[in-house]
Amino acid sequence: MALLQPADGLPPVTTSTEALAEVAAAFAGGTGPVAMDAERASGFRYSQRAYLVQLRRAGAGSALVDPIPLHGEFAELADVLDGPEWVLHAASQDLSCLAELGLRPASLFDTELAGRLAGLPRVGLGPMVESLLGLSLEKGHGAADWSRRPLPEDWLVYAALDVEVLLELRDVLTGMLDTHGKLEWARQEFEAVRTAPPAAPRAEPWRRTSGIHKVRKPRPLAAVRELWHARDTLAAERDIAPGRVLPDSAIVDAAVRNPDSAQSLAELPVFRGRSQRRLARYWFDALRRAAELPEAELPRGSAPTDGPPPVSRWADRDPDAAARLTAARAALTEVSDQHDVPVENLLQPDLLRRMCWTPPSDGDVRGALSAGGARPWQVELLTPLLEPVLDTR
Asked: For position 355, which CATH number holds?
């Protein structure tokens, strides 16, 4: 059955502190978990702030809150929401922007993560709702520019429907996980997501420029780096997604072609556009800075890392480590099949690689797993399998 309209009608968008106080009072009078969602403007804006927050709770109904005119005045709602379990889909995507508003869960249920642990083949919200609830959600506007004002009504309907299904979906998934003895696994995973620290900034984020594999020498790599930082500065000032300020392809093209003047740069594809021609001197100054760098300040060909080398090099550099990784992956695949849990949810791939490259010197696999961030259920499940694989004595 197609789900086209919210059951209680489309709630008004909350834009004032008075209306937000009413929402807080309604949710304080509700019962049970709170379904939560947030819409950002990724791909359009530089910031990852929330441009709409959706909530639903039994006895309170649904609410749509516009954070922009409220200027962060969420303290009253935050107090109400500090206690009930929050239900989100792919929670790690939304928790940070909600935290910017002072909204943080005391406990969490992640329907996407629950679906993975339950062994569902497709864990997008739409497929899960269809397979478990018999409802179909129309393809929505998740990738739309949610910074737009006013928000179109069909976008608001989409946003309201996203939280309308979460509470029922949570109940079905809870039953499935309990039946298969995975409910405690899920609780530990949810808590790990809830308490995860903010991601540390990447050491050299410019190396993620799409197409950078075409740039091999240090001087052109420096040009990519300077253009990337110049773009990032401009994007932050204007609150525009970096790719809309200057595409990655244009950065790589300019670094490879190495134009000798702003005029020559403006003749390249993308740069010859009207908006880019106005910025030709700005972009060329970045290229000039790269050209004038002393050799000692040029970037290396590959990013520095504190981890093991790429797996493709293991066989040559350390055949024993390569053999350990092969055996460990085979063991995890067997457990994955047995418990119907994706391999990547059994253990973080990076932790597995690190342990296979440098096994714990004292043989304490259990301790190494725990120190590496594995949850207790993972430690108990995998320690007996990994101990013989990682035994270097």
From this structure: 1.10.150.80
Burial classification of residue 87, based on how many CB atoms lie within 10 Å of its CB (0-12 exposed, 13-18 middle, 19 or more buried): buried
Q: How many helices (H) and strands (E) does the chain have?
A: 20, 8
Which range marks the domain in which residue 209 is found?
Answer: 205-297
Q: Using CA atoms, how far apart are residues 140 and 53, in angstroms rounded to an integer?
A: 16
CB 134 within 8 A of CB 109: no
Tokens representing 174 are 């809870």
- Per-residue pLDDT tens over the stretch 154-179: 999 999 999 999 999 999 999 999 99
* Extended strands (E) in 82-189: 85-88, 107-110, 136-137
Q: Are 166 and 56 in contact (CB under 8 A)?
A: yes
pTM: 0.93
Q: 152 and 9, same structural domain?
A: yes
> CA–CA separation, 234 vs 205, rounded Å?
16
Q: Biggest alpha carbon distance in the chain? A: 68
368-374's contacts with Cβ under 8 Å and 24+ in sequence apart are 372/348, 373/192, 373/348, 374/347, 374/348
Question: What is each CA distance from 219 to 211, 226, 295, in whole angstroms?
Answer: 16, 11, 8
**Secondary structure of residue 178 in the 3-state scheme:** helix
CATH of the domain at 56: 3.30.420.10
- 88 and 149 inside one domain: yes
- Owner of token pair 């950065």: 251
> Domain check: are 171 and 231 in the same one?
no
- Cα–Cα distance between 105 and 192 in angstroms, integer? 12
What's the DSSP call for residue 15? -
> Domain count of the chain?
3
pLDDT of residue 31: 98
Residues 113-124 pLDDT 10s: 999 999 999 999
Instruction: Please give the single-letter amino acid code of residue 206.
Output: W
Structure tokens at 77: 């709602």
* Omega before residue 150 within 30° of 0, cis: yes
267: helix, strand or coil: coil
